[in-house]
Amino acid sequence: MHSIHIEVSADVRAALDAHRPVVALESTIISHGMPFPENLEVALAVEQVIRENGAVPATIALLNGVPHVGMTRDQIEVLARAGRTVTKCSRRDLPYVIAKKLHGATTVSATMELAHMCGIEVFATGGIGGVHRGAETSWDISTDLKEFSRTPVMVVSAGAKAILDLPKTLEYLETEGVLVLGYRTSEFPAFYTPSSGLALSHRADTPDEIAAMHIASRSLGSPAGMLVANPIPAEHAMDKQVIDTAIARALADASAQGIVGKEVTPFLLARLCDITEKSSLTANIALVKNNARLGALVAVSLAAQRA
Length: 307
Ligand code: PSU
Ligand code: MN
Known about the structure:
- Helices cover 48% and strands 14% of the residues.
- The protein has helices spanning 10-17, 28-31, 38-52, 73-82, 94-99, 108-118, 135-138, 143-150, 166-175, 207-219, 240-256, 264-275, 279-306; strands at 7-8, 22-25, 56-63, 66-69, 87-89, 104-106, 122-124, 154-157, 179-183, 202-204, 226-229.
- Helix 3 runs antiparallel to helix 4.
- The mean pLDDT is 97.
- It has 307 residues and is an alpha/beta fold.
- Strand 3 and strand 4 form a beta hairpin.
- Strands 1, 2, 3, 4, 5, 6, 7, 8, 9, 10 and 11 form an eleven-stranded mixed β-sheet that branches.
- It binds pseudouridine-5'-monophosphate and manganese (II) ion.
């Protein structure tokens, strides 16, 4: 068993001890995914959506090297104001940030790992990392994808952004034995738009079905997590032409400026926000809340089915 100290907030601790529903939230979306002050407003609003739907939110980050699961408003504000100066922390970065006693904002992979260590099984976010376009030469494949194969946490997301190579991302997940479940859709959603044209093999139409599949996965003893792909609601979706053009420009800028490694995703997210004059941010906020709601409903169902 692990022996590292994790600072679990009192409300999250109480919920876990009583087997009540808890939903994990990541913090890179706060520090590196959105500008201040919208990032702070969204982080707090998303927690509220989870509470309104019957679960306890557990925002995860490292403060002075200590992993925190469940954070206060003031702690979230520290990350929101610090923005991209906080260390973006994927699984490989955790030992460094812990030993150096740094602040770290957790990506999907590190959030899954810390959530799992605390017994949290449901995690809601916006988009996951994936196989980048040009990966056949750059080898840029997010460690988020590998994490799904070894950590049994369900992640509710709006699919993956078309800054990525979506067909390769789905192929990678299939190779790693990860169930990708469309929620009320048979297509993989493309984050800002509800569809990518890529068919999914599996779908679910109710939170109960999703929870039952997670229970089945756990009862098989599978180490794998699950990706629940929840499309952006139609009324908040962006125009495909507008977002595709913005993505092409952002990718060209990244390439011209020689952006590589862990800087790629934050750079692209910030460029998209600028290029679209924040209309991408408005869509992003709507879909994160939508994912938080579904995450809470699934966590509630999971607790009920196990009771
Ligand atoms: N995609 C988004 N928004 C985000 C991220 C990805 O649409 O905020 C963040 C998540 O924290 C994700 C991380 O885990 O970026 C992936 O980074 P990379 O591509 O460097 O693995
Ligand atoms: Mn990468």
